[in-house]
Design a protein that fits this description.
Helices cover 39% and strands 27% of the residues. It is built from 4 helices and 7 strands; from the N terminus they run ααβαββββββα. Strands 1, 2, 3, 4, 5, 6 and 7 form a 7-stranded antiparallel sheet that branches. Helix 3 packs across helix 4. The protein is extended.
Length: 171
């Protein structure tokens, strides 16, 4: 056998082994892992506050500066109107305003309970971001970076600390 025929037969054998392996193993080696960006957005979706439900509800209202489309304290939902990207929150590392076709809304879900024998309230935030390409096409959803949600949680926590300090100062 000539050198090139042997070389080509080795290459064909290698390719067939890779294809067979992918078929049998389901190409798990080539699965796309979620990016760090996607993992951070999952982490920042909910938080537990060791405070009463009503106090957390009031703190969230003090923090949310967007127009509210729907709210129900009994079911524990606050939903904002759609906010244009240029009117909404911008991360500090962004130099220019986002496209005018971007819009988003925030949905906050509240659940009361007890954690380690203490009264607690779990807050979940879902940020639905869409890109409107034109008038006729359906909006395309995009993932959030999780930064605004993290900031809202931080601000709620600060409001709760301020409420607690004012209550102690009044007594």
């Amino acid at each position: 056998m000539s050198h090139t025929v042997r070389f080509l037969s080795k290459k064909v054998l290698l390719v067939s082994v890779i294809i067979t392996g992918c078929t049998l193993l389901g190409c798990s080696l080539f699965d796309k892992k979620p990016s760090a960006h996607a993992q951070m957005s999952q982490i920042n979706k909910q938080r537990v506050f060791f405070a009463g439900y009503d106090n957390v509800w009031r703190a969230a209202h003090a923090v949310i500066k967007y127009p509210i489309a729907q709210e129900n304290q009994d079911t524990g939902i606050i939903e904002t109107e759609y906010i244009k990207g240029i009117d909404g929150w911008l991360p500090p590392n962004v130099d220019r305003a986002p496209s005018s076709g971007i819009r988003y809304k925030l949905i906050l879900n509240f659940a009361k309970g007890k954690t380690e024998g203490r009264e607690s309230t779990r807050v979940s935030i879902e940020k639905k971001t869409e890109i409107l390409r034109d008038f006729f096409s359906e909006p395309e959803t995009i993932d959030t970076d999780g930064l605004e949600e993290k900031i809202i949680f931080y601000r709620i926590e600060r409001e709760l600390i301020i409420q607690d300090a004012l209550k102690r100062a009044a007594n």
